[in-house]
Protein 1
Amino acid sequence: MTGLKRPFAEMAGTGRYIPAKVLSNADLEKIVDTTDQWIMERTGIRERHIASEGETIACMGEIACRQVLEATGVSVEEVDGLVVGTASPDRLLPSQACDLQKTLGAVNAAAFDVSAACTSFVYGVSVAEGMIAGGTAKNVLVVGAERLSTITDYNDRGTCILFGDGVGATLVRASSDGKRGILSTYLKSDGRLGDLLYRQSGGANEPPSEKMAKERSYFLRMAGREVFKHAVRSMADACDQALTRAGLTSDQVDLLIPHQANIRIIEATAKHAGMPMDRVYVNIEKYGNTSSASIPIALDECVRSGRVGPGAVVLMVGFGGGFTWGSTVVRW
Ligand code: ACO
């Protein structure tokens, strides 16, 4: 919490990029022992989009960011902060943000990544808000970008049914009228739960090796049932905390945009928050879980369709590996 009077920063403009290629449940039935019915009942996912060769995060991110700049009238030269949340960067060094900076031509930006798995976008917004408040930057692009298909094991039916690729983005800048903007943020993590969702190899402790390739330990692993339980708990905590900090109750919220991980987690979160499902945005059927991209993709859909318009109060809530969770309340 800062001593500054909120809102001092706002989200302005949105953008997204979804790869054209679709991986449907029917496609997955041919790859692993599963059924469309099981996936729909347990997750709410019907299909997800998968990046093709050449659809790098830098390329997808550039398109999403250009949409944000077009919507806000901010030039690429005016961007002085570029924060990318991702768990699946194009390469490990330099940061994804620096590679995107180059593709976008955001030559005046301080570019860096935020790593909080599916909560990365919410973390990124909070970091950007701090940059605005501290006078470090004026126009910060915050991007959630994933190519999870590259770290998903398509031999593992417990995970491969869930994940998809895509990018969403927004701009964080000083509040234009002192009324619209970020009303609260809440960030939390618990590293003791790290082994519930992790990638074992490929990092400095277990560098790439033949063993890694043989054991497929480069891919994401997840204890689904345990993640599910913690997700429900942490999403509930994140809703409560963001609302308390904003001094609002859920009936004052126009729309809940939860991280799109599983329809059952979303429904449990909505129930806890006392939000009827007609005030909860759900697009998991089309995209699956796109990790850090899921909230900004959903936000972009809502803004472009008019579901979120001027003055709307939006609660965004995320959770992910780490374990991390967090939330923000925004008056659009
Ligand atoms: N198709 C058919 N059967 C399956 C499949 C599948 N794709 N996957 C698992 N099963 C079977 C299991 O083997 C098990 O069979 P058994 O009872 O004979 O042992 C049965 O279905 C039930 O398995 P559970 O794992 O208990 O199934 P659950 O209802 O928990 O659903 C799921 C699994 C969908 C993964 C769920 O646990 C979930 O969504 N967890 C949260 C995942 C999540 O949100 N992850 C994202 C975190 S965000 C991030 O940081 C990336």
Note: The longest strand covers residues 165-174.
Protein 2
Amino acid sequence: MVRKMMIAGNWKMNGLSTDGVALAKEVAAAVKAKKRVCEFAVCPPFTILAAVKKALRGAKVALGAQDCHFDEKGAHTGDISPLMLADVGCAYVILGHSERRADHGESNELVCRKAEAAHKAGLKTIICIGETLAQRERGETIDVCSEQILGSVPATATAADTVIAYEPVWAIGTGKTPTAQDVEDVHAAVRKVLAKKIGKAQAGKMRILYGGSVKPANAKELLNLPDVDGALVGGASLKAADFMAIADNAGC
Ligand code: PGA
């Protein structure tokens, strides 16, 4: 089964017009500099999507956003619709990141609704799942991730419109990572649950990224596992050199 590796940068709430555009230009230049076998994406904050899109011109780096509403338009002050993201040139949208699940009370049902709307607007989704430290310590990792997959991924999702990102909450921004064996075990389990939800063929083709303190130093070990199809990178995606070193070390 050949799945194209993906390296995606989640810039979170970082990047003003000057530094964000500079970062995008550096990534674009580095991706162009040699033949790449992976897919690249950067997901800046809403405010600089248009500027980053321009900065990426001519480079094979997709633009992604970090959230969207489930409606196409209407009375939702402060929200951004999937159609608006498509309109500004986004190919991807990250949904259900643990920071949104925690800070904005996003449920699996809401994430699923957003994903359906995003797909309808022609966007591809990066749907995030992952257990907290307490859940891991109670031995609930696989159960929690399975529930999130079953609840957050639309039954109509396909490998062409959906990417999963497994991000243990306790590994995000902490410098801590699971062992390679733990990562592979969760990814393999996630793929099995996906098969239940969307069928074996699509599950076999769907990319499952690992996220949580991915750095140049651990990229080789964590990203070359059989069921790991790339990375969703937070902190290290804010420095083009680190982001590209992760890609290089992952064989991208
Ligand atoms: P991190 O974040 O790489 O800074 O741990 C990853 C993420 O939250 O997507």
Note: The chain is about 45% helix and 15% strand.
Protein 3
Amino acid sequence: MPIVSAQIIDGKAIAETVRNQVAVETQRLISESGIIPHLAAVLVGNDPASEVYVRNKERACHKAGLKSTLHRLDATINQAKLLTLVHALNSDPDVHGILVQLPLPKHLDSMQILDAIAPTKDVDAFHPENTGLMLQGRPRFLPCTPAGVMKMLELTGVRTAGKHAVVIGRSDIVGKPMAALLVQKGIDATVTICHSRTADIGAVCRTADILIAAVGIPKFVKGDMIKPGAVVIDVGINRVGERLVGDVDYAAASSIASAITPVPGGVGPMTIAMLLQNTLTAARLVQKRSQAAFTH
Ligand code: NAD
């Protein structure tokens, strides 16, 4: 049998499409209302990976015409001072989105910090109020990485209705919201979540029409875990020496799957694009509130 190569789902190109759309809509918002969408990023300490992520987010904001400011804090900052900054950003009318770059140093309670972000400025969509709204199918913001995956599926023309989607990983940031989005009305996938205690994970994965890996283990998904013709989405970003590799054995998978995302250049660029989208949405919420106040 000839080896058929999977279609490569180009996250860079799809992310650019989304960012260009955000740029156009941002200009429209500015000309209609004078509101410039503004993302405030908080970076605690100087973890090199976090530095890169924050810099990329800032650069993407500026390129799309959004405003972005960075609040750099010393790694030794205490919980109370960080909370004070979050409260100040919450009440700053010029700030529409707040992003606290994770991970925070171990002495800080990340959950308390994230919960303190005003839900209407929670552009990472980690606040329980936003998680609840998403689960109920009336989202305010969607969590960036799972939303990026959904956008990739949509723009690649992957059919989801009635398909079996298997998500590997149950984190609050990727796995759980990913499954929640796939099961929503209108998307209509039948969803299975696998995790570290799943029995015979290979057998479960082999039943997937759409297989989404968010495990954090390099090349966790082997070729024999993939159903021929499946769509494979690799969320993993793992540093192996100098290289970034995904959670999927790309070489093996690309001769079995019908479509696959590469690492890098797959899901990664989508995450930032969706963050810009959420920041624009947050600014529009302010526009709507001021229009509503004007008409009352
Ligand atoms: P996490 O460590 O919080 O969660 C990993 C999940 O994998 C857990 O739920 C666990 O149950 C599951 N798991 C671990 N070992 C397993 C095993 N042996 N068998 C089956 N399941 C197992 O990680 P996360 O934050 O969800 O991130 C997952 C990966 O995605 C990481 O590589 C991370 O770097 C990457 N990531 C990428 C982006 C992006 O923008 N592309 C964003 C967030 C995370």
Note: The pocket of nicotinamide-adenine-dinucleotide is lined by residues 145, 168-171, 173-175, 194-196, 198, 201, 214-217, 235-238, 267-268, 271 (CB under 6 Å).
Protein 4
Amino acid sequence: MIPKQPTPDLLGRPLADLRISVTDRCNFRCPYCMPRSQFGAGHAFLPRAELLTYEEIDRLAGIFAELGVRKFRLTGGEPLLRRDLPVLVALLAGHRDTDLALTTNGALLAGMAAPLAAAGLRRVTVSLDALDEAIFRRMSDAEVPVAAVLDGIDAARAAGLAPVKINAVVRRGWNESEILPLAARFRGSGSDLRFIEFMDVGTTNGWRRDEVVPAREILERIDARWPIEPVEPGYRGEVATRWRYRDGAGEIGVIGSVTAPFCGDCTRARLSAEGRLFTCLFAAVGSDLRGPLRAGESDAELAGRVARIWGARSDRYSEIRSGVRGTSRIEMSYIGG
Ligand code: SAM
Ligand code: SF4
Ligand code: SF4
């Protein structure tokens, strides 16, 4: 195995974090991600045999760690739908010097937080786009009450998965009226809330620029109610710009991927549930790692393969998006954000 070392891409960005999608299925149908018209009863999800097994994910994770990855994040689809997820968490928690986090819609978190924490999960991010029941239902297109997600957040805190981060996608005409209620709910709670601009991921969500509420506008609305000031970024590759309430009630963040792209600091690789490696959220194709892995390639060969893929990377879609719209792209529910 080659030694632990930073692996820079063509723009000098090291490979530092890996998002691992464990399923392309979800119990929500958020229209900005999995619109029911496209992901209805007739949609063909990945068959089980196509998914990487937990042992395969763990082996690849070890290879990425050798190449410099310091943070794993489990995602989906909805990761809590994958059976026996704590088994995978326990395997991944065994990699030294790496952080292990999970992003979930929270619907099943109340019952899963304790076993996940016991298995070695460190942190969790919960997506919650509204507190108002009707708006939440429209944003999630699911029959899950807001209270179930809030219970999940409480259970995560009680299990020691703190600080719990909350992600809220903001879509003009859908939930921008929830910006202040969400801020009010999580101010001073110990949970940092991060607002995300509605992104043009995939090709099915009917993205329109006029439905993007710019990060600046979100911040101005909050600042007008509770004055805020900027916080220095915590580490290279941090996607959210961080702000703190001047009255000491904690932090909020905004992820301005449309109006303030951050490709220059993008140190993130993405592994799909079937073992394809994507070097950008907006990529059209990924590189198959499952085939070579199942064909018997050694760890050193697989590491060389990943290093070559990352070394050839020059993606910066968000910075040049106007020039490349309209091409085919993977879906968010496939790659997990
Ligand atoms: N199902 C889990 C969840 O919702 O947290 C994990 C996967 S989901 C694809 C990861 C994140 O991507 C969520 O926070 C979700 O809100 C965000 N997301 C999905 N589609 C998006 C879009 N079009 N624009 C911005 N964020 C999006
Ligand atoms: Fe499911 Fe998450 Fe996509 Fe919503 S954002 S449809 S919860 S994968
Ligand atoms: Fe990274 Fe691609 Fe997003 Fe730019 S557009 S920040 S390169 S994932």
Note: The pocket of iron/sulfur cluster (ligand 2) is lined by residues 26, 28-30, 33-34, 76-78, 105, 127, 332-333 (CB under 6 Å).
